[in-house]
Amino acid sequence: MMGKKEIFISVDIETAGPIVGEHSMLTIGACFVYNPAVEFTIMLQPISDKAIEEALKVSGITLEHASKAGLPPKEAMSQFENWLIQNMPENAAPVFVGLNAPFDWSFINFYFLKYLNRNPFGISAIDIKALFMGATKCSWHDTKSSSIDKYVHPTLQGDHNALHDAKYQAELFRLVYELNCSK
């Protein structure tokens, strides 16, 4: 029996801090790994006023700006789900891909479940760092994006813009996946 076709979706987020449910997810960027032109980006209104200044500095997004420019979380997550549904081929399932996927997936999962009572990605994700570790037998320390870059030479770079980072991650995934396939 054949399962659904797996469609890899690169997802990146920017947050106001590391604690799911306490700190806000401020932006989401996503694209199809093997067709990055199919893209999605959205800003969300904060769910609290709690923030870690360093997290805000990294993205350059303030809570005030997100409050004004962002959408309510329920509407944002509904739009994200609709984008997935509209772009997913028939008999296919989205597979969440991220660089440090546990962090990004935990926020995405929380927001989907809190606001829509479902997560179209299910309960798992593929982490590019772990995939790279398996492909190269390197240490966990050597799975930083800068180390991966030196090994696979992507043309894109991350800049803490969620959509740009999602596209960068998509390229990293393709390159690292090829390392696994060439063995």
UniProtKB/TrEMBL annotation:
InterPro entries: Ribonucl_H, RNaseH-like_sf, RNaseH_sf. The keyword Hydrolase applies. Residues 7-182 form the Exonuclease domain. It comes from the Bacteria. GO terms for molecular function: exonuclease activity; nucleic acid binding. It holds the Pfam family RNase_T. Keywords: Exonuclease, Hydrolase, Nuclease. GO terms for biological process: DNA metabolic process. This is 3'-5' exonuclease. It comes from Acinetobacter chinensis.
